[in-house]
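[Automated response] Your request has been received and processed.

Submitted sequence:
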Amino acid sequence: MTITLTLAKQLLALAVAHAPPGKSIYSAEVMPECGTDPQAATCPLERVCDQPGLLCSPPRFSKSQGSWVRVESPETAVRRYALVTGSLVRVSRKLVSCRVEGELPDEDCVPVKGWPPGAVESLALAGLVTSVAEGGLREDVQYGRPPMGRGAAGEVGLAQLMPNQIPRFATWLPAEERERLANARRGELEAWIKTEIFGDQNLDKYFETALRALVQARANCKAGQNWPYAMWSRYGTGATCKASGKFAGQRSGWFFAWQHQIKKVALPEWAVAALEPAKQGASGEHLAVFPVTEP
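Generated structure:
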């Protein structure tokens, strides 16, 4: 089945191809039919699918979510991925053109410096590469759920932002609020991150912060270098554009490869079916990201 893909759907197809949904035991989905009593589930505590292995394990109670959960299914995961790719496109378009819907200017937008004007696709793709490489598009990482949803240094979200760097790049905040958060105690900053950074309702704010950090990393490196390698070196280390090790090379390699694939990929039939309104369930309203107006 072939469908016409917007940029957001092209990114979604890349995400499905390179971070297959429903394959992480750390990603979970709530099972409302099981209730919220940790001692007495209102559903059978049986394996949730027929395949062997941990992905089909019976529901378990999650203290952090206050609900019974199962390993996230491919269908639920692809709907979550759609939120991510839709947000990446919206935010990238805003940052490189300061435009919102259609041709309306965003008067509050601060345009990025150091990224080619109008290069929405490359910025959104860089954001996707970062999210796959850093956070694996895992549900627990996206929402910061314990015990494995935060990095060893408390890194935040799919792009693994350092907490103390978020106020610097959160230009959607008033200057005085950014200054306050930059000097806040760790507990106060963490409380703010929990309510203002994590969650579907904050996804655009999160990616605006992350993409601005990526753009700054690119701008800090000399023109003429292998800019994706240099950018991810700087992003990952905070200090050098020529980092040793494989991480920057992996990300830059993915970036160039995915650039060639982006016009050729198509969503598999099961993913197309999962995105149909009748199958979106409680999160269906979020999928208004499709179709996305192209720049």
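Summary generated for your ticket: The longest strand covers residues 67-71. DSSP finds eleven helices and three strands in the chain.
If you did not submit this request, please reply to this message.
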